[in-house]
Amino acid sequence: MKRNYHVKFLNEKDVELAEAVCMASEDYYLIEQDKPASKNDALKIITEIPDGKTRFDKFVLAVLDEHEKPIGLVDIVSDYPRKGRWFIGLLLLTPDARNNGLGKVLHQTIKEWANDGGADSLAIAVLEENEKGRGFFEHLGYTKQETKEATYGEKKQQVAIFVLDIK
């Protein structure tokens, strides 16, 4: 894959960009909720904000290739669930954008951005069924802190919370 990509910060008006990534990443949504993504799933990525946070604490970015085609989504909440920890709600690449180093490049950029923003650690929730995702974050140095239960659609999931110290 060429390294000719850029990111765009998203808001509700950009739901089509998020939807394109979600629809192309059917494999992830089948693991998450046993069904393909919907426009509502894409909208939730942009609009859902954790309790106690505001829209100024949440950043959703589309990764676009050189032809402006969306190939990834990143969702980050600063200082969540505590001050100094940035939570990656989603780091999703379309299947044709995976396995070429782009995920590592994006993660490094997130790490530097969080560090510049005063973060001391990053956290991410990874579905226990998502073996590739778990392996990716373990390879980056994340360690599993706990397991929680969550429901996506009608599917109950075991979700591992992974943390990486960045200071």
Automatic annotation (TrEMBL):
Residues 18-167 form the N-acetyltransferase domain. This is N-acetyltransferase. InterPro entries: Acyl_CoA_acyltransferase, GNAT_dom. It holds the Pfam family Acetyltransf_1. It comes from Listeria welshimeri.
